[in-house]
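Notes from hallway chat w/ T.B., transcribed later so I don't forget. T.B. wanted the structure written out for a chain they're using in a teaching module, and asked if we could keep both sequence and C-alpha cells in one place. Agreed to drop them here.
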Amino acid sequence: MTVGVVDYGGGNIRSLVKALESLGVSPRMLASPEGFADCDLLVFPGQGAFGDCMRKLEARELVAPLKAWLSADRPFFGICVGYQLLFESSEESPGQPGLGIFKGTVQHFPETSLKVPHMGWNSAELDEPESSPWEGLGPAPFFYFVHSYYPVPADRSLIAAETEYGPRFAAAVQRGSIIATQFHPEKSQKAGMRLLGNFLRDNGAIE
C-alpha cells in the first residue's frame, strides 16, 4: 500500500513524514497530478492561509485529482488547513472557494478573553470513541492545536470530535474513508501517533 502526502509547496510536511516513517511507511510526495494513480491512501497536511493554500493547489493542478479522490471516498486524512479546505469557503479568504467536499464555512474565533490563535494542548471529546480510527484513545484525548479559524459543518452528523475554546467547535470530521482534524496529530505525541496508526492500519498500510 502506498501512502501519498500532498505537497502543494507549503504545510508541515517534514514532521508529518517523520511521523509516518516512524509508523513504518515511506510516504510518496505528490506535487503533481500524475502521482495520485499510484497511491492507495492520501494525507493532506496543512499550514498557512486558506486562500494561499487553494491558489498553490490550483497552480500545481492538484485540485481536480483531490476532488476526484474525495468524491470516490478513497482513504484520506486532512490536517489543519487540509481539513478547512474540504469546506466551501472561509472568512480568512473571502471570495476564494474551497474544495467544497462538505457544505459549511470556516469561521474565525469570536472576540473573547482567550488568546487567538488557539495554540497548545486541548481535549477533543469523541462522538464514538470505540470506532475506527479513534479506537484506544479514550473519550476525550488531548491533541495539539494551532489555529485561528475552524470549520462549521452544515451537516452535524459529520462531526467526529468537538473541542471547547470559547465556542465549542468541530475538532474533527469523518465520513466513510475520509477523516480530517483541526489539530495536528503529528505533533500530538502518543495520542496523535495512535490516531495516525489506526488510520494506516484500518486502510491496510500497516498491520
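Follow-up for T.B.: The two ends are 11 Å apart (CA to CA). Might be a good example for the class.
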